[in-house]
Write a structure and sequence with these properties.
alpha+beta; Arc Repressor Mutant, subunit A; 3-stranded antiparallel sheet; 5 helices; 3 strands; about 65% helix; elongated
């Protein structure tokens, strides 16, 4: 079911998180070039996972939004990953779980925009 590339999944997740975006905004968020984002969005559009629509604030611009099918795929992928991690965490000791929780807090701080 999920034969999306990591870049495609990332773009869909960004659109789901931020809502409809201009191509330039999406390229900036994803930290990839405009030609690259255009190609990836085109392939996602061919699969019905994104749609382009006129920007109501600027008729010269186009927004890209994810479709309900994209949200469904992302939810399935997240559920599968969560189930996998939950099964793997069952093998950890209590001390290892504590270490993992502490490390998660540090990673959140490192990844934050602040």
């Amino acid at each position: 079911m999920d034969d999306l590339t990591p870049s495609q999944r990332s773009i869909l997740a960004s659109l789901e998180h931020h809502g409809p975006l201009r191509m330039g905004e999406l390229a900036s968020i994803e930290k990839i070039s405009a030609p690259s984002i255009s190609g990836i969005v085109g392939r996602l559009e061919d699969r019905g996972l994104v749609a382009r629509e006129a920007d109501p604030k600027d008729a010269r611009s186009t927004l890209v939004r994810s479709t309900p099918e994209a949200s469904s795929i992302l939810n399935t992928v997240r559920q599968q990953r969560s189930a996998f991690l939950a099964s793997r965490m069952e093998t950890l000791t209590e001390a290892e779980v504590t270490t993992l929780i502490d490390a998660t807090e540090l990673l959140k701080r490192l990844a934050s925009d602040q």
